[in-house]
Structure formats: structure tokens, C-alpha cells
Amino acid sequence: MNRVVPSTIDGAFQFTPPVFPDDRGLFASPYQEAPFAEALDRPLFPVRDVSHNRSARGVLRGIHYTVAPPGRAKYVYCPYGRVQDYLVDLRVGSPTFGRWDTTELTGDNCRALYIPVGVGHAFLSLQDDSVIVYLMSEGYVPANELAISPLDPGIGLPIPSGLTIRQSDRDAAAPTLAQARERGLLDDYELCRNVEAKLWR
User: Fold this and answer.
1) If I label 21, which of 27, 28, 34, 181 is the partner at 20 to 30 A Cα–Cα?
2) Number of structural domains, the chain?
3) 3-state DSSP call for residue 44?
């Protein structure tokens, strides 16, 4: 049975499906409607974008988020490889604003995460060729995509030692959480909740 665990971040959830390994490999269903609908009291949002990336060991992507509106809810999992995944609540006024949560996503545990509108996402690849798949509620519009530094000491993400960290130029130059808030780059909690609610209308 799919194990559902609420995140320490308001509105986010972790889903771990049954995994069936044998001498050929394994089978799993990272998304199943029934446990998702039970946890959120609604089915998965209408998917408008399915994307994936592949990352070498030590690649650190994020913390990424989408301006609301339109905002983007995301459902992510790792079909191959191993990553340390991070969620950060960037919604000003949220009861969990500034809080982070982390879990390991692997091709063996097939765990998936639901990421609400306004919650930032990052991950660190722990092995070569790690793949992350994204199911998203909106398409990609570059002007709507922003980033916060995953190395911001004010957030304090636990980054495993012993890796040579590699980032994109954009992520390396991203502001801290405090700087983003001062510049008005973060969205309001209630706005994000309202935008998210409209996904199912």
C-alpha cells in the first residue's frame, strides 16, 4: 500500500509506493490517484507539462519556484539514480515560512513528492545520471521562473559533505531568502493557496 507522509511544510506530501523487485529489475507506480486524492481531498492537478532532467554527481539544482499567478504545483520522483531532495516554504505569511524539509529520492524507493504552489524545490545529485521527473500544473515560462540560493546560511539546508558542488550560473547568483523578500520576489501564502485551489476548477 502507498505510504503517505505529510511534510513538515504546510500542504506538501511524500508518497512512497509499493516496490516489486525481482531478478529482472523492479516495478512501481510512483503516482496512484487514490492515496493522493485521500491525502489532498482531490485528484492530481491537470498536468500541463511533463519534464525531466539528468544530473551528474554533485549537481545542485534550485531552489526553484514559479511566480504566482500562474504558479506551478509539482509532483516529482526519481526513476533512476539517487538525489537528496529539498523543499523550502517561500510563501510569506505561511505558518511554515522559511522551513525546509528533505528526503532521499531514488530509483529503488520510487518515492514521490507533491510540491504546492509557492514552495521552492531543490535537489543534490548523489550519483551520476540521476533523473528527476516533474509533472507540473503549468507550462514553462522563463520569465516566471525564479530561484533562491540553496547555499543560503539563513535557510541552512543540510548539504552532504564530500561532493564537489556544481551549479548553473543562475543558481549560483540567486539571492538569499532575506534578499528575495526585501526585493518583493516572494509570493503571499494566501495568494498561493488561492492560485492552487483554482487548479481543480
Assistant:
1) 34
2) 1
3) coil
- Global pTM reads 0.96
Parallel, antiparallel, or unpaired for β 145-147 and 60-66? antiparallel
Catalytic (active site) residue 140: no
- The one catalytic residue among 52, 64, 75, 121: 64
CA distance 54 to 72: 21
Stretch (H or E) spanning 196: helix 189-197
CATH number at residue 157: 2.60.120.10
Catalytic residue among 65, 77, 114, 134: 134
Write out the residue range of the structural domain in which residue 36 sits. Answer: 3-19+26-200
Q: What nine digits make up the cell of 78? A: 526519481
Q: Is 64 a catalytic residue?
A: yes
